[in-house]
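To assess whether the prediction recovers the assembly geometry, we first specified each molecular entity separately, as shown.
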Amino acid sequence: MSSRESPLKQLVLNLLLGLAILVMLFPFVWMIMMSLKTQVQNTAATPVWFFTPVLDNYINVIERNNFLVFTKNSLIVALAATVIGMVLGLPAAYSIARFKQRGLSLWILVSRIIPYITFLLPLFLVFTKLNLIGSFTALIASHLIITLPLIVWITIAFFEDIPTDLEEAALVDGSSRAGAFVRIILPLVAPGVITAGILAMIFSWNQFLFSLILGGPNTKTVPVAVFNFLSYGSQDYGAIAAAAVLITLPIILLSLTVQRYIVKGLTAGGVKG
Amino acid sequence: MSVAPIPTPTRRRPPNRSFSSWLDRNIRWVFPMPALLALFALTILPLIFNLVLSTQERSVSDALPSSFVGLGNYLGALKDPRFWNSVKLMFQFTLIAVPVQMLLGLGLALLLNRTMRASGLIRAVVLLPMISTPVAVALIWALMMDPNLGVLNYFLQTLGLERSLWLADVRLVIPALAMVDIWQWTPLVSLILLAGLQTMPDEPFEAARIDGASPWQVFRFITWPMLQASIFAALTLRLIDALKTFDIIEVMTQGGPGSASETLNVYAYHTGFEFLRVGYTAALLSLLLVIVAVVAVGVNLLRRRV
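The predicted structure of the complete assembly is given in tokenized form:
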């Protein structure tokens, strides 16, 4: 189509696209700039655009605010919820794909439409009764609500792409179905499994509400830690920006590897509460 | 013509393989079962429990006895001005955010569709807002919207406009929050619509060009009808999520100033986890669920009409 556009029209449309991208990027650029400025520069009446970057804010956040401990907590929860989600979800996704059990994928709809806080209230009461509030068990279980449907939904498409011949050949050779699943099919869908795993980890990492209510002092995840840090009246803008950069950075790096599937993940899994 | 059945050789399995053969025969329900049980325990059961809770007068603490109140909590909600305020704010937020992001998302999709050859980097940039941790997004925007030092007021002044209180202004707080939602989710709308645009066949466009159709006519009579499925998919998704928005609002304003940005989700959170009124909160959540479901079903009924 662009071949028929006049140079003027092309210029205008490219400028519009450039503007849109600038608007999308600006908050990130601004956040990074704030994180590298001193408190004096950040509180200047007119924004300071040119400055010598300092790393004090990062040192402050990492050393004084236990950021690494919270990062470790987030990683434990995200990894466990992803691995358990896969152990439970991959056989289910395979079965749905192979036997066309479309009805089963309705379960994903439940987790998509219902506000997370509706699950959270009963889970909070049950976990309180079981003395599990503040434990990794409670956090990982609640994060399964995010990771499991997502893993099932994403990998169904990958399982559907595997030709049945390979599996049938294995069955003829005397392999059991479960054996064929583990030895033949899983290796073939490895790229899909990795994609689903990375997306599940991203969504678990981003999760705020479950971690806020079900977490405790020893299991506080990064988003909750940063939220508390802010709500205790911190006026240290540079540190807040540095914390925001530190939460976002791993997600950006991970997401670049699964770019193509992110929209599918967002439309299937649901990211917010 | 009749064909004699070919006798299948009966393979004799050793006894220790009986579990394996049982598994083979029942694999279509054995394989999904663990996931179904987990999801039942984590989503369906809590949902049912929430309904039960909504009929009780009950506090988180076991020290206070709980009692059955039937529909009392629901009737209480219908008489609660703060409930109605929260419903109003929820719809205000949604009705500002979603139409704007649908329009901007369509525009962006059409722009991206022209230049998809240079797309790798652009696509990566477009993904950034929607994959970012909501708490981080809320923090960045809260800093940018600071009435005294925020960079947004600096931009307004540079453009010769009045400074704004943003989140501190009772009338502006919902539009300001909607603005963050628009920034974050317009990219998703545009990527869904872009996927729709890129699967369209070339022939109708060629034919229209030969017939001398204007760009508007091409859009109205060719692009739009073919894009409808994607548009309704994006619209449904965004309506559902906008109604449920929690992280951004709770982090940026905690429902304030006063209760000027206390949407139903946020109100339920405060009654549940600050005031610990479990039964009433459960009723609020059931009502929220009904509203979201009605909107989702409504949009899809509309889709069949159009």
